[in-house]
């Protein structure tokens, strides 16, 4: 898929909506120097082009039950495409798996997992191992605190 051509206005809008997607077209327009209707057209195009893939609310974990964060590193037996695709599909379907990274190094995948407690995390990982025999083993780091949590992607200025 070709990369969309993003101009200076698109890049400014992408930065602004990443910081606060609830801002209205009037406020965004005033900041980027376009009309509100032009801002809405651009945002619609950015969604249609797949640049903006979702709009989400970021919750304070302490106010919704204080979930625990786990960083899991998975090692797989064989890197056959069909095995990797099946594992990715399984992981993507799991609500507690927040992020999935296919990586280089000792591990093959690194996951960010949120769970209510260690027992729930252990049950999830037991299911992962039972349902995915291609996973050789996993290691886990438990987050003792969260210094920063973000999905912000810096958008470089146009050349």
From TrEMBL:
One of its GO terms (cellular component) is cytosol. Residues 6-67 form the HTH asnC-type domain. One of its GO terms (molecular function) is sequence-specific DNA binding. It comes from the Bacteria. Signal peptide: none annotated. CDD domains: HTH_ARSR. GO terms for biological process: regulation of DNA-templated transcription; response to amino acid. Keywords: DNA-binding, Transcription, Transcription regulation. This is Lrp/AsnC family transcriptional regulator. It comes from Sphingomonas psychrotolerans. The lineage of its organism: Bacteria, Pseudomonadati, Pseudomonadota, Alphaproteobacteria, Sphingomonadales.
């Amino acid at each position: 898929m070709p990369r969309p051509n993003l101009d200076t206005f698109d890049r400014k809008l992408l930065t602004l909506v990443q910081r606060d997607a609830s801002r209205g077209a009037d406020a965004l327009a005033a900041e980027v120097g376009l009309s509100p209707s032009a801002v809405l057209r651009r945002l619609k195009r950015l969604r249609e082009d797949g640049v903006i893939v979702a709009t989400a609310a970021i919750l304070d974990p302490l106010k919704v039950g204080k979930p625990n964060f786990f960083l899991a590193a998975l090692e797989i037996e064989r890197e056959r495409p069909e095995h990797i695709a099946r594992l990715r599909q399984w992981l993507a379907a799991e609500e507690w798996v927040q992020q999935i990274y296919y990586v280089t190094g000792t591990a093959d995948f690194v996951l960010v997992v949120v769970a209510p407690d260690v027992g729930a995390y252990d049950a999830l990982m037991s299911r992962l191992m039972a349902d995915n025999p291609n996973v050789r083993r996993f290691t886990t780091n438990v987050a003792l605190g969260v210094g920063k949590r973000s999905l912000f992607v810096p958008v470089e200025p146009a050349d």
